[in-house]
Design goal:
It contains 14 helices and 22 strands. By secondary structure, it is an alpha/beta fold. It has 2 domains: 175 residues, Rossmann fold (3-Layer(aba) Sandwich); 220 residues, Rossmann fold (3-Layer(aba) Sandwich), CATH 3.40.50. The strands form 6 sheets. An 8-stranded mixed beta sheet has the order 13-12-9-14-17-18-20-21, with helices on both faces. A 6-stranded parallel beta sheet has the order 3-2-1-4-5-6, with helices on both faces. It has a two-stranded antiparallel sheet with strand order 7-8. A hairpin with a 4-residue loop joins strand 20 and strand 21. It is elongated and about 75 Å long. The relative contact order is 0.09. The model has no long low-confidence stretch (mean pLDDT 93). It binds cytidine-5'-triphosphate.
C-alpha cells in the first residue's frame, strides 16, 4: 500500500457510538504505513479514550485539554498544516453543521477550519438526522466547498432503527482515503480498463468450466490504478474478492461476455490491462437442463472461445470504418506460462499486438494462481525486459501501473 506510506493523516473523531470503529481505522492506516494524528472532541471522549488511539497509532492523540493546555504553540494550525488529509470519522450531525458554518469551538473543528489539506468526512448519525433538511443543506455546502464524503450507509443503527446514517465500515473508509489521496496522480483523468478473474463457460444450468484464477492480481492492478488517480473500470469474472472503492465494476461470466464488455469499455480508454484468465475453450453445446447421471457420462466437445486481446488488436489495427476510435492507447497483457516463460511471452507480445506483457511462471509455488505473491518479468514492445523479484501482488501491480504511466507519457 505505498500510497499510504509516510502519509500524514489527521483523524478527527467526534461523538458517535461509531467512534470505536475509528480505532480500527486508525490501526489499519498505521499498519499501512501512515502517520496518524488523532483529535478527539469532548463528546468523542465519552465513547473512547485518547489512550485507545495512542495504543494503535503509537503517536499522541489530542483532545481539548491540549488546546487549552498551553504546551503547544498554535496546535490547531500546526496539526492542519502538516497533514496530507483530514478525515473526520465518525462525523456527527453537530460537527457537520459546525464545519458547514465555520464554527470552531473545539480542537477538531478549529483544525478543520485551519487545515489547507483535502477533507474527507464519514458521517454517522441516527435515522432521520441525516435525511433532515438541515443536515442535507450542510452536506451540500460542504460538497460545494470540495469536501469529500464517504457514506453514510443504510442499515441498522445502535438505536435499533433502520435507515441511512450508518458509519461506513473501516475497510471501505480506507478505500475512500486511498481514493482521495490518489486524486491528481499520474493517471488523473485517464480511463483505465482492468480485467480480472477466471471466466466460467457453462456446460449446463449448474456446471461450468473454469480455471484457478483468484482475481487477486487483477484487483490489485485496479487498486494501483486508482491510487494513481485513474478512472478505473474493472471488468470482473466471478471472484470472492471485494472490488476496490472507486472502481466501476462490470460483472461478466463467459469469455464472450468479457470480449463484449472489454470492447465497449476500451472505446476511448487510455489503457487496457488484461489480467483476466480467459477461457481458451468452451463446451460446444450448453445443455438447457441439468445433465443427469442416469443418462450416462457425457462426452463434452469443446470449441474455441473468443480471444479478447486478439479482438482488441484487430480494432487497434483499424479494421473497418469507425473501429479506430475503440483503440485504447496502451494495451498490456499477461502471460501465464509453465514452461519457456520468456519465449512464449515474447510471441504473445507480438501476436496480440501488445505494448507490454507481464510474464509469470505459474509452475512456481509462490507465484501465479491463488497465492498472494508473484514473480514477474515485464517485456516491452521496444524489446526491453525487466525482471522483478518475488513480491506481493499489490507491489507487482504498483510496478506494472508505474510502467503503464510511463508508457502513456512517452507514446
Ligand atoms: N487472453 C484473452 N482471451 C483469451 C485468452 C487469453 O484475451 N481467450 C489474454 C489473457 O488475458 C492474457 C493474454 O491473453 O492477457 C495471454 O493469456 P494466456 O492464457 O497466457 O495465453 P493464451 O492466449 O491463452 O495462449 P496459450 O493458451 O497458448 O498459453
Amino acid at each position: 500500500m505505498s500510497i499510504l506510506t509516510s502519509k500524514h493523516i489527521l483523524l478527527a473523531v467526534t461523538g458517535s457510538i461509531a467512534a470505536y470503529k475509528a480505532a480500527d481505522l486508525a490501526s489499519k492506516l498505521t499498519q499501512a504505513g501512515a502517520l496518524v494524528d488523532v483529535i478527539l472532541t469532548p463528546a468523542a471522549e465519552k465513547f473512547v479514550t485518547p489512550l485507545t488511539f495512542q495504543s494503535v497509532t503509537g503517536r499522541k492523540a489530542f483532545t481539548d485539554a491540549d488546546l487549552w493546555g498551553g504546551e503547544a504553540h498554535v496546535l490547531h494550525v500546526g496539526l492542519g498544516q502538516g497533514a496530507d488529509l483530514l478525515v473526520v470519522a465518525p462525523a456527527t450531525a453537530n460537527t457537520l453543521a459546525k464545519m458547514a458554518h465555520g464554527l470552531a469551538d473545539n480542537l477538531a473543528t478549529i483544525t478543520a477550519l485551519a487545515a489547507r489539506c483535502p477533507i474527507l468526512v464519514a458521517p454517522a448519525m441516527d435515522v432521520g438526522m441525516f435525511e433532515h433538511p438541515a443536515t442535507q443543506e450542510n452536506v451540500r455546502i460542504l460538497c460545494g466547498r470540495g469536501v469529500y464524503f464517504a457514506g453514510p450507509d443504510e442499515g441498522r443503527m445502535a438505536s435499533g432503527l433502520v435507515g441511512r446514517g450508518r458509519f461506513v465500515e473501516p475497510a471501505e473508509l480506507l478505500g475512500h482515503i486511498r481514493l482521495t489521496l490518489g486524486f491528481g496522480g499520474k493517471l488523473a483523468g485517464k480511463k483505465i480498463v482492468v480485467t480480472a478473474g477466471g471466466t466460467q463457460e457453462p456446460l449446463d444450468p449448474v456446471r461450468v468450466l473454469t480455471n484457478r484464477s483468484s482475481g487477486k492480481q487483477g484487483y490489485a492492478l485496479a487498486q494501483a490504478a486508482l491510487d494513481a488517480g485513474g478512472t478505473v473500470v474493472l471488468v470482473a469474472a466471478p471472484t470472492a474478492l471485494t472490488p476496490p472503492v472507486g472502481a466501476r465494476v462490470v460483472a461478466v461470466r463467459t469469455a464472450e461476455e468479457m470480449k463484449e464488455a472489454v470492447l465497449a469499455e476500451s472505446a476511448g480508454a487510455e489503457a487496457l490491462v488484461m489480467a483476466a484468465a480467459v477461457a481458451d475453450f468452451r463446451p460446444k453445446q450448453v445443455a438447457g437442463n441439468k445433465l443427469k447421471k442416469r443418462d450416462g457420462i457425457p462426452q463434452i466437445e469443446l470449441e474455441a472461445a473468443p480471444d479478447v486481446l486478439l479482438a482488441v488488436a484487430s480494432t487497434r489495427l483499424g479494421a473497418g470504418a469507425g473501429m479506430r476510435s475503440r483503440k485504447p492507447r496502451i494495451v498490456i497483457g499477461f502471460a501465464a506460462e509453465s514452461r519457456d516463460l520468456i519465449g512464449n511471452a515474447e510471441s504473445k507480445l507480438q501476436s496480440k499486438n501488445l505494448d507490454m506483457i507481464v510474464a509469470n511462471d505459474i509452475s512456481a509455488p509462490d507465484a501465479g494462481f491463488g497465492v498472494d505473491t508473484n514473480r514477474v518479468t515485464l517485456l516491452f514492445a521496444d524489446g526491453r525486459k525487466i525482471s522483478l523479484p518475488l513480491m506481493g501482488k499489490d507491489e507487482a501491480a504498483e510496478a506494472v501501473i508505474e510502467h503503464l504511466a510511463a508508457l502513456l507519457e512517452t507514446q
